[in-house]
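To assess whether the prediction recovers the assembly geometry, we first specified each molecular entity separately, as shown.
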Amino acid sequence: MLKKVEAIIREDKVNDVIDALKEIGIMGLNTFEVRGHGRQGGVQLVGRAGTYQVNMLPKIQVNIVLSERNLEPAIEAILKSAHTGEPGDGLIFVTPVQEVIRIRTRERGQDAMMYPGDIDERKKQSAG
Amino acid sequence: MAPQINTGDTAWILVSCALVLLMTPGLAFFYGGMVRRKNVLSTLTLSYIFMALIGVQWVAYGYSLSFGSSIGGLIGGLNFIGFQGVDASPNPDYAKTIPQGLFAAFQMMFAVITPALITGAFVERVRFKSFLLFSLIWATLVYDPLCHWVWGQGGWLKNMGVLDFAGGTVVHIAAGFSALAFSLVIGPRKGFGTAPMEPNNIPLTVLGTGLLWVGWFGFNAGSALAANGVAVNALLTTNTSAATAGLVWMVLSWLDGRPSTLGIATGMVVGLAAVTPASGFITPMASMVVGAVAAPLSYYAIRFRDRRKLDESLDVWACHGISSTWGMIAAGLFATVSVNSDGVNGLFFGNPAQLGIQLLGIAVTMVYSFTVTYVLAKALNASIGLRVQPMEEEVGLDISSHGERSYS
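The predicted structure of the complete assembly is given in tokenized form:
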């Protein structure tokens, strides 16, 4: 079963999260910039005379598609690396994915998600 | 003895002419950085277009109305229409040692930037066609007469002894109070007070501030119309007032939380606008006082405008109108003939009467520019409308007015 992980994290935690995922063998991912807020509310900035409120804060969403068996390690890696303890650390959403297809080779499913040295290859090596 | 060209004076004013022209693009960036991204090209164009519009209007008839042979002290005649007679020979009424063509060119740059200043009041919602019509009429009915009254030979305010070295009344008070009038007529932007309206590119505003400060040396020191001690004094007072006001605004901004770049830049411009009418008449120490007082005056004027919920969007009234009003008063207080023997003394140098004359100049400028602008704006609003349609305002003027995207 394929799953998509959408992790909305702080901008300054992007590199930490990417490094942590790479370390456990999850290499394929993308990010995009989002704006929003949850409990953090907004922030007060200083203008030319006085302050103003900005409520939509810039965050980064990290997207990963992976097999269900790799879901928990990935989540754990994100949780550890994106955490600060302050409001605004973000959220992780998990949704099902119907299909994955690699454009270069037309591989589908599991084959489309394999990279040399990735999490599944390492598991196979340590098992075999 | 016939007036003779001085090459030093002429070279300096040629440079000043270029410096003041550069202030209009500087202003464009100053304003452009403060609006929302969808309106940045529109805001730049509102300033830039005056280089074209007044570049033609001034040569065609603007210079003549401003500096031509006076009709009752109220307006210049048509003797300089199409720049006829405006050539390499000096006009002894205005500048004995530089060609009149150069004097006229230098003055043109003031006529270009003044209406551009007003645009800060109505960014992000003005209809381009209405704005063009308003601007041409404003230049003809407000700028040219006012310029004639204060600087024209035979102008009635000049004859009354109003001291305005480089454009406190003609440029900044006029622009500021015209901006106020226009904003009362056009109404606020959609979502003003509730929707976020963050500056899209503060680096542009900071760039504009630098260009304005450097250009202002041409604006003020060039208004000496000669390469002499008065020009040097004007340069020093200009610089000192800007520096002082920038520091004071930094402190005010710090008290808001943190010293913002935008605040510091605004403070510098306010200091420059304030000292403009006094720059060639007061000492550098006096200009420090001018800048130090101008900053809180304009700062609290912005807060006042905000509390009244008036969308005079980029605070032209607060930053130019109010600061230069103080500058005109400061001229009446601190002017000394030891700085400029062609001037007079102010109150602190034994001549309290000058303050009264300055107040007259201020009042006339405020009332005239506000009233004519208000009536003109009302008339245009009733006939062709001043604003774009709500959907056009939502999408942004870059696309709806100019068919362009700023950053693709």
